[in-house]
Amino acid sequence: MGCLGRLIGLIAHLTFTVLGRLLVLFLRLLQHIVAILIGLLFNLMRLSLQATIIGPKQFVERRAADWTRQLLMTGMSNDHFDIAHRVSRIIVGGMVVMGWVLIVAGTVLIVVAIVRIVT
Fold first, then answer.
1. Which residues in the chain belong to E strands, given as ranges?
2. 95 FRET partner, CA 20 to 30 A, in 9, 19, 80, 119?
């Protein structure tokens, strides 16, 4: 029974060691993914603030024109220019609106946290 108990203990120890290392690896990977997502969210908010300063309509048109020009330079045919420009405008406009929503949501969360501390 002593040998069997040691064997079971060794197998359990090795299993928990492997599971612990996998957990650490997963958390490190998750840390990098969260950092990338936070960076993307800050870029989205920066884009929206730039659109607010310049003017949303003018900003969307300028950014969509840049994206369409880049698509044409990569080899897209001129037949699809109008569709590509429309899609680019929709995407840029959506990004600007999503950034505004993030800014408003962040502001609300900060105000709620301050109110909870004060009251």
1. none
2. 80
